[in-house]
Specification:
Layout (H helix, E strand, L loop, with lengths): L2 E5 L2 E3 L5 E8 L7 E7 L6 E6 L6 E3 L7 E6 L4 E6 L8 E9 L1 E4 L3 E5 L2
Parallel strand pairs: 2-11
Antiparallel strand pairs: 1-3, 3-8, 4-5, 4-9, 5-6, 7-8, 9-10, 9-11
C-alpha cells in the first residue's frame, strides 16, 4: 500500500522558517522523482520544487527560488522542504508527490504565514 505522509506544517510569522517532511512507504522511493506542490484557498494546485531520484539535481518555481530548499534521504524514504523567509503568499496546503509516469500524492500539511 503506497503512502506519502507529510508533516511539519503550522503557523509561522512572516520572515520565519518551517521544515516540511514527507515519509514514503509502499514503493521504491529511490526510483522516483519527488515534488512538492501547494494549493492556496480558491487557487489551483501549483508546483513548488522537484528533486531527482538520487538527489543530484533540483529545480524550483520562481516564486520560491532562493528561499526554499528541497532535499531527500533515500535511506530514510523521506523528502524534505526547508522553507525560509516565508511570506503570507506562501500560505497553502503543501503536498508531496512521487512521479515516475504514475503519480502518488500525500494528504497535505497546512502552512499558514501570518502575523
Amino acid at each position: 500500500q503506497v503512502q506519502l505522509v507529510e508533516s511539519g506544517g503550522g503557523l509561522v510569522q512572516p520572515g520565519g522558517s518551517l521544515r516540511l517532511s514527507c515519509v514514503a512507504s509502499g514503493f521504491t522511493f529511490s526510483n522516483y522523482v519527488m515534488n512538492w506542490y501547494r494549493q492556496a484557498p480558491g487557487k489551483v494546485r501549483e508546483w513548488v520544487a522537484r528533486i531527482g531520484n538520487l538527489g543530484d539535481w533540483t529545480t524550483y518555481a520562481d516564486s520560491v527560488k532562493g528561499r526554499f530548499t528541497i532535499s531527500r534521504d533515500n535511506a530514510k524514504n523521506t523528502l524534505y522542504l526547508q522553507m525560509n523567509s516565508l511570506k503570507p503568499e506562501d500560505t497553502a496546503v503543501y503536498y508531496c508527490n512521487a512521479n515516475r509516469g504514475n503519480d502518488y500524492w500525500g494528504q497535505g500539511t497546512q502552512v499558514t504565514v501570518s502575523s
